[in-house]
Amino acid sequence: MVLLRFFARPSRNCLRTYAVASPSTIFLSTFTRHFHSTPPFFQDTATEMETVNTTERLSQLRGFMKDHKLDIYIVPSEDSHQSEYIAPCDARREYISGFSGSAGTAVVTLEKASLATDGRYFNQAEKQLDTNWELLKQGLQDVPTWQEWTAEQSEGGKTVGVDPSVITGSDARKLLEKIKKKGGAELKPVKENLVDLVWGKAKPSRPMEPVKIQPFEYSGKKFEDKFEELRKELEKRKSLGFVVSMLDEIAWLYNLRGNDIPYNPVFFSYAVITPTAATLYVDDSKLSPEVKSHLGDAVTIRPYDSVFGDIEALSTELTQTKGVETTPKKFLVSTRASWALNQSLGGADKVDEVRSPIGDAKAVKNEVELEGMRACHVRDGAALIEYFAWLEDQLITKSAKLDEVDGADKLEAIRSKHDRFVGLSFDTISSTGPNAAVIHYKPMKGNCSVIDPKEVYLCDSGAQYQDGTTDTTRTLHFGEPTEIERTAYTLVLKGNIALERVRFPKGTTGFALDTMARQFLWAEGLDYRHGTGHGVGSFLVLNVHEGPIGIGTRLQFSEVPLSIGNVISDEPGYYEDGKFGIRIENMIMVKEVETKFKFGDKPYLGFEHVTLVPHCRKLIDTSLLTAEEKAFLNEYHTEVFEKTKEFFKGDSLTLDWLKRETQPY
Amino acid sequence: MVLLRFFARPSRNCLRTYAVASPSTIFLSTFTRHFHSTPPFFQDTATEMETVNTTERLSQLRGFMKDHKLDIYIVPSEDSHQSEYIAPCDARREYISGFSGSAGTAVVTLEKASLATDGRYFNQAEKQLDTNWELLKQGLQDVPTWQEWTAEQSEGGKTVGVDPSVITGSDARKLLEKIKKKGGAELKPVKENLVDLVWGKAKPSRPMEPVKIQPFEYSGKKFEDKFEELRKELEKRKSLGFVVSMLDEIAWLYNLRGNDIPYNPVFFSYAVITPTAATLYVDDSKLSPEVKSHLGDAVTIRPYDSVFGDIEALSTELTQTKGVETTPKKFLVSTRASWALNQSLGGADKVDEVRSPIGDAKAVKNEVELEGMRACHVRDGAALIEYFAWLEDQLITKSAKLDEVDGADKLEAIRSKHDRFVGLSFDTISSTGPNAAVIHYKPMKGNCSVIDPKEVYLCDSGAQYQDGTTDTTRTLHFGEPTEIERTAYTLVLKGNIALERVRFPKGTTGFALDTMARQFLWAEGLDYRHGTGHGVGSFLVLNVHEGPIGIGTRLQFSEVPLSIGNVISDEPGYYEDGKFGIRIENMIMVKEVETKFKFGDKPYLGFEHVTLVPHCRKLIDTSLLTAEEKAFLNEYHTEVFEKTKEFFKGDSLTLDWLKRETQPY
């Protein structure tokens, strides 16, 4: 799955990406598949891409704004945990504006309303917004950012309000700065969410899915040991404690998993770890006796909603008690923690906003997690191989008419047969021809294309297994590819291989390696407008939020070196708008490599691939490959064949396809 | 010349690097050569590497500190222009401490004195510092930085003083922050330099070398046109004016050159450019009637020392006159401008510290400058070829005993015969065997090694010509290289070639390209601890200060993309302490390249080499080269031969050497 400049959060185009808040007793149910038949949960508000009448909602909101003496009210897209995917109950920006894209901010004044979103969503926003709304096309010249627009509206001492639990401390500070510059009076944190007041009883309830244990055989480390390491970190940083707000970090830290947010096996919670105590804020009804016994005496359980009051009291207590010491002591929070958390702790004097030490630790997988990654990728590879063989047979031998969603559904059905399968890790990108050029394309039943065997077919998909998370892209052709398609595919493949094969001294960052994947495309004047690699969790979140590492030209990727145990994607691509798209994605793991020399006595690192799916023979122009690259491909294809063939006993269709696709050059 | 983490400023080890302040009427004299026979100008203070008795100087300094009510006084290494090389009159830190290394800061309290320097100079500092001084070995664990040491000494409300003209505004702010944290009272700018008071009449006078015109045939752009572009930039940034403090920026802007600082053809000056006026602060005695006529009515000349008073008055006048406007208007200064300049302008409210727009413009060479670069590299290449042929003949055929300085002198003598030669661009690194592993090695007559024909010989040198600046490194072997020497040389060469051959879309930075040069070394567990490329001026400064661009892992190189017209070095290396060192350096220029495709309608860029000196056949292991690399080398060597052969008519020794070294593989 590709890392763009923007977060990929589900859009209304793809209803399947929203979790439905229905309690489920079967944790290992495929928590995405059953959404296919689920009707849109926003039936009361919007049908697909239709304009939403927001007059009444805005009128009510403005009433509540007046009650709070606000002139302007900000409605961000985020939930209280800055999650990449959100639950329906947190889709406040969509409810108030009618715009259902994944990215955007609504700003409502007493007279006006504006909705800011980026280039991916200009068309959709124009369709969905009614005349109450002004669309701020972010990124276009002479269009103000929503912060600038807010600042302009605040001139003359206006008061701006926002729910401090859905904006980060640093975003709030930056906004306040803009407002002040324009002569605005104040950015006021309003604890009561005013959109929720308007939404009232129609608002979906917060998911209450049961929490499950991630057993030691998959986690590889007891949570008590994770606590110990975190506490050493707290001691090193002279910190009073760490208030954890990111849901995947809490799930990882406690070796627990949930089902509250689609594709991400997390549960709504906060956690506070101090040198002597650990508190988990989660609603008791989600916890089975087994989970409680797993946590034992080491963890205090408190209701989800009580976190703010609790940490306020804790901060007052600890900073008063320790106030006599000369070293200033503070709490750690993630830079992505909400303004509300910051405030509850007592603000800047009591809070150090840092890159989360849990995020850093989580990105370095232990041997058990790495083994789980290897294992689940064998099963996942077998599923993709079976699917591709089936698809070719359907399209070519049987001349079947299949649309992109049919393909995605079949792939999911195949995956779900495999051991330890839990669900998809994101919406399957099943795309034919020009749709493959839409990097975050999501097919929708009734509104998607029939797969054309004479065009390129791009499939980017992944699953959550109890022992790991997968994310694989393959681009195929079932007919005769054009010359440019073959050239582009081969250049992308060369980059994919070059990145996997590079060796580098410890201390090197993903920023420094990005060019390895692009060099062959660049040489021909080609490129792709997305990152090259993102982290992936162990049965957890993938994409932008997994770990501080990544491969690409974002400056943040120059901050943290790649470390042994990191798991990261290797996914160069090439896209021609309106024509075709190519992407090849493997997951690769950082390991120490043997080198002839060892300058500076530093370990030298390299990558090990875990993805096991053949590359498309029809799309490879072997005249562009070096002898070394051919040898590498042959070795890879032999490995794919040997490790997956056992799944196809008695399935000669798949086995024949696999044999053909993995024969040596 | 290599870009290390530290600036390379001349050390006392190498007396030749200091300019002698003697007026010269012949501008085109070789302003470095005659230093060889010049006695140390600090004869009164220190002989080579001997301990200096500073008791009396410190006692006097403390007297002056008390007069100014200072408890602590900081003596940085820098001059008022943050120049990379300094004139003798600015070597205050050396005078007060006795330590003559290029990098270091002295901090003197009423009781103690400390000298902070980095790993390159620990031995030298230990020898040169007397018992009055504590050595702060920067970079070692548990050793405070000089700022931390100062802060500790300032506890209890002490006052710290510094000459604000030799510290940047941002360095002063950071120091003040540290002091305040430790309970220090104040960082006091003391305009009178207290070391100068101690130094008294023994202090060398400020150089007063004549300023010369850089004619249009070499500059390629009239200064009036440069003014116009700068003024457009001022308008865009809504700035009142730009106060220019970097000497190379002033020389470039006015198409003038000087002779005040060794190796850098600059002159002591400041400049102020406003939308309507241009003032050059330089002592009148340096300006000939020709120069005054060149500047004409467009430029007001004012004495060097009057800049602070003038800009204070200017700032008061302009900000009062324009005070009625709503847009806050400020002056621009470089982030490397002194605290004194900042203060004179009125501090943070009146000053925007920015990456210098002149630095940005200067880094993009025009066609005339690029042509000059090409032309001077042909002559410079011929000089190096003649030198290497001579050296081999001397060492092998004639079995001559030559030391490293003999070699450097001969090379300079050969260079000086060539058209438009002005002087060296830095101290020649002429190093044999283990000395080649010392990245900034500088041989000193009487204390350097005899060149061993059985060892590697590394020569990093360059010259200033009126039409351009050169900087070339070649590593040679006159006998039988070892296997590791050949392997390392070939891997370095492969990196050098890969970087030159890379193509990249407009917008790519030097940070992203660094790995191209290291990848082959990394694959074998090898690396080098310096940057890969630095900018170079046109008959101006090279190394860290030339332009905002560079190739390497410094974060600053991720800020500014490479642009057509940039000239930059390509110099990977490999060093084995105590054994040998390898570096291969070409100057390369950024140009637009033709590519088969043009994704995103962006120009694709690549490099053109200008350095023309053969690579060492004996050190190349051709089994490590691809067919493409061999073809590339053959083409390069043919070009070197064709472009330089005309210089060797009647010089069969050189011509034979050149033919042998450039024959095809």
From TrEMBL, chains A, B:
CDD domains tied to this protein: APP
Q: What residue ranges are annotated as transmembrane?
A: none
Print the organism lineage: Eukaryota, Fungi, Dikarya, Ascomycota, Pezizomycotina
- Provide the species name: Mytilinidion resinicola
Q: What is its EC number?
A: 3.4.11.9
Gene3D superfamilies recorded: Creatinase/methionine aminopeptidase superfamily, Creatinase/prolidase N-terminal domain
- Keywords annotated in UniProt: Aminopeptidase, Hydrolase, Manganese, Metal-binding, Metalloprotease, Protease
Named cofactor requirement(s): Mn(2+)
Tell me, which GO biological process terms does this entry list?
proteolysis
Q: Where is the Peptidase M24 domain?
A: 371-592
- Give all residue intervals belonging to the Creatinase N-terminal domain: 57-192
Q: Per its UniProt record, what SUPFAM superfamilies does this chain match?
A: Creatinase/aminopeptidase, Creatinase/prolidase N-terminal domain
Q: Name one Pfam family in it.
A: Peptidase_M24
The name this protein goes by in its record: Probable Xaa-Pro aminopeptidase P
Write out the function statement from the record: Catalyzes the removal of a penultimate prolyl residue from the N-termini of peptides.
Q: What Gene Ontology molecular-function terms does this entry list?
A: metal ion binding; metalloaminopeptidase activity
Keyword check for Protease, yes or no: yes
The reaction(s) annotated as catalysed by this protein in its Swiss-Prot or TrEMBL entry are:
Release of any N-terminal amino acid, including proline, that is linked to proline, even from a dipeptide or tripeptide
Under InterPro entries, the record lists: Creatin/AminoP/Spt16_N, Creatinase/aminopeptidase-like, Creatinase_N, Pept_M24, Pept_M24B, Peptidase_M24_C, X-Pro_aminopeptidase_P
Q: Where is the Peptidase M24 C-terminal domain?
A: 603-664
Q: Which family does it belong to?
A: Belongs to the peptidase M24B family.
Key word Cell division present: no
GO cellular component annotations, sorted alphabetically?
Answer: cytoplasm
